[in-house]
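Technical annex B. To support the medicinal chemistry partners, we prepared a structural model of the target in complex with glutamic acid, based solely on the information shown next.
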Amino acid sequence: MRFGACLLALAALATSLTACGKSGASSIVDKAKDDKKLVIGIKVDQPGLGLKKPDGTYAGLDVDVARYVAKELGVPESGITFKEAQSANREPFIQQGQVDMVVATYSITDDRKKKISFAGPYLITGQDILVRADDATITDVESLKDKKVCGAQGSSSPKRLAEKFGAEWESKNLTQQQGYAACLPLLESKQVDAISTDATILAGFATQFPGKFKLIGKPFSTEKYGIGIKKDDKSGRDAINNALEKMFKDGSWRKAIDANLGEFGKFFTSPPPVERY
Ligand code: GLU
């Protein structure tokens, strides 16, 4: 039955076979158990979080969280295929079955919950601002009113600024790229004055290029990082939440924070409570 349903869904979507695998399972729990394989959407250009290194391997907090959760679901590291995700394609990747889960600085929002389900959170951060190191004119979010700002398509960060400053500001002042790393050369060459997104992402860039950029350090939102899976996969959410709680308790979460976020990791004193719904 499940395999039949899977084939039907595939025919309807005319999409790839990756998320159905051998088992044709409808929950990520069964798929992981049966296939011992998972396709996981990850960012590849965010140091400390999700980064593809020149040797082709992946590193970052999201990568460590993904590996831990996969292992708890019965999938060894060798069974994981990481697939590059951008902010804008995370929901479609899950909906179309191109990935089994997304671990990619992915904020839990009510809008996104209409399309997919979230386990977690495993980290809580806030939207912040990155400027050139010698810029003293930007001190908080209000300063962005007459500044040029870069963000990523499909991200909640530029959306929040567009809602705050209005449509005219959006068309005149906001530049959107596919990812945040693509904003860095624009900031350096003064085509924009700031990049605004999660403090975690911006701290990673500031560390990557010492002396070039400065994190303002006044977060103005609450971003809860969740793990995105197919909508209404309740057993999947439960199993992933159990895995996260185990990661919090056995010291692996602390280790992953310190190993990947360095000095910035000290701000994360304790893991957040997971939201079971
Ligand atoms: N956490 C925010 C989001 O999910 C911004 C970072 C990103 O786009 O990955 O939209």
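Notes passed to the chemistry partners:
The CA atoms of residues 146 and 213 lie 20 Å apart.
Residues 87, 104-107, 152, 155-157, 197-198, 223 surround glutamic acid (CB under 6 Å).
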